[in-house]
Design a protein that fits this description.
Elements: H1 2-36, E1 48-51, E2 54-56, E3 66-73, H2 78-82, H3 84-97, E4 102-109, H4 113-122, E5 128-131, H5 136-141, E6 151-155, E7 160-163, H6 170-182
Parallel strand pairs: 3-4, 4-5
Antiparallel strand pairs: 1-2, 1-5, 3-6, 6-7
Length: 184
Amino acid sequence: MKKHAERIIYGILVGLFLISCQESKRDSAEKIVKDWIGKEILLPADVDCWYMGQDTVCPPRENKPYKMLVYTDSVGCTSCKLNLMLWKHYIHEMDSIAPGEVDFAFYFQPKNRKELAHLLRRDRLEQIVFLDNTGTLKKQNRLAEEMEYQCFLLDKRNKVIAIGNPTLNPRLWDMYKTTIITNK
């Protein structure tokens, strides 16, 4: 009987620990979001541009009402982090529900340029991307290390409206779409 009571108490303590960890993570996420909302993101001018893994001329910056800024460094599994097929779907969906309203700006800090070029060609991301070889975007804006906080919905002045990577949390994509559609 004593062993049974000890197991129950142990189970309750483990459960309380897990709940407190989840609340702590949620509190941390809320603080990060609160700190970023309204903050201006500075975009580096000295970057290379690629189209489908090939050098191209950087286009003039568009002044659309919204910009989806996606930053990816080369730490870890690049193809896993990029999820280009899902981004292609998001771009297509946004073009159909809010044509001409959203600019998608992909900034990469590649460790292996050949691997990135291969991924862009393989997944046929028909989008000009920016190569931030020195990590200027991350440094000057003090971006978080976690990739879930390296994606931003910006207004036309590059002020953060929302933060979070929708490829990791599809509910964020729904929130981004709602924000853009209701503010048209």
